[in-house]
Design brief:
This protein is of the alpha/beta class. The chain contains 20 helices and 12 strands. It has one domain: Glycosidases (TIM Barrel). The longest helix has 27 residues.
Length: 496
Amino acid sequence: MPYTKNFGFRHKAGVIMPVSSLPSRYGIGSLGKSAHDFVDFLDATGQTCWQVLPLNPTSYGDSPYQSPASQAGNPYFIDLDLLARKKLLTKAELAAQKNSSKRVDYGWLFTSRYPVLRQAYSRFVPDRDYRAFKKENAGWLEDYALFMALKVHYGFCQWTQWQPQHRDHTQAKLLAGEFEPEMDFWRWCQFEFFSQWQDLARHAHEKGIRIIGDMPIYVAHDSVDVWAAPEQFLLDEQFVPTVVAGCPPDGFSPDGQLWGNPIYNWPLMEAQDFSWWMARVSGAFRLYDILRIDHFRGFAGYYNVPYGEATARNGKWDPAPGIALFRKLRQTYPRAKIIAEDLGFITEDVLQLLEDTGFPGMKMLHFAFYDEDSENLPRMYPTKNCVVYSASHDSDCTYTWQKDLRGEARRRFNRECPRDPSRHRTYDLIEFALNSRANLAMVPLQDYLNLSNEEGRMNIPATAQGNWAWRVSPRYNTPKLRSKVLSLATKTKRSK
């Protein structure tokens, strides 16, 4: 029997807004006042859901989809004002962290944020809450703390370059005592992150807002996940991947996409009753009410490329466990609410897996106008059990997308999407999404602000630099914007 086909609500709306993009005086969005204010914005505009990008720490390339720790929270999101309120930071220390840059500068954060967090930690007095947190989260926290302590010890080089006694997880744990002071700093960072996140989530729930989180299908090779459990991945004796993940060539990418993540040892995972995955999902639901699983098709069949290839051209498809994994997931978490990111190269086995699980799939309006009867067109949705998006964190902003639309796609867009001459076409597309039969309609904040790519694009897939840096103006939350968003939600009967 599949999962429930709704989220406990029907015909609602929400906004995509990365935590990193929230207003802040300190160079990156955080879990403090601006996040609470955004929840109030969602409440005032009739929204039901807030979708965030993965909240995990970032590493080289700054992508939250290539995290060194799938269960940990990003220390950059710890709100400094809240630390000051606990008398862990001084006014002078806060002033030194001010950064009004219009884009997130991850290089600056890496060199400036950890010293001030260490200063706060030096004034922290462990209490009952801290001891309880360490005990309750020991299953992942101890490995994470040791991994990060070793990262610092080795100057943040990849773990495969560490000394043998530290490359081996079992041996490293026996030597953990000598790194205890450094480990406790990383434990404390997680304590503060989760404490602040829980306060924010509580505020959202009081306002009737559900939080949608995003879980990448793969983990980074240079991560605590691979270091602590290398047997769960296809690696050689030197812990180097034998094959890596990617996507095959298509019309948008003639060389395909070479992600570089190690591939799971699916036979072993299945033999172990998917315990590794159950732990990972458990971690995700500590944070989120609804979980969007990225690259869902990879659970039906996965594309893998021999390690060392320069492009993804020479990869091949192999079968994944499919429904066996999700039967275990349903058994373990029967009330889990999951969205399947089913975009891209979709085959019959993926469609069958989607039907068998009952998970709602995604409909992307930017893809809807290139074929006469595209499955992304609202009139083609066979069921309400889906989530429609005007755009995503990987796409053009709708302002730029519609401006660049040409030929038959432009004509189809003009024919299918009703035009209101009193407003910009961006808002026509938003209303087109909201008017669909999909149970949930999601819109990036950039679209409600009608930003161009130059102003608001978050990520360009298959590019390594310059992504994940968009920051919204501190003056975004105007009466005019609130009125516009609420009016659209009310008009389309999606207001909560």
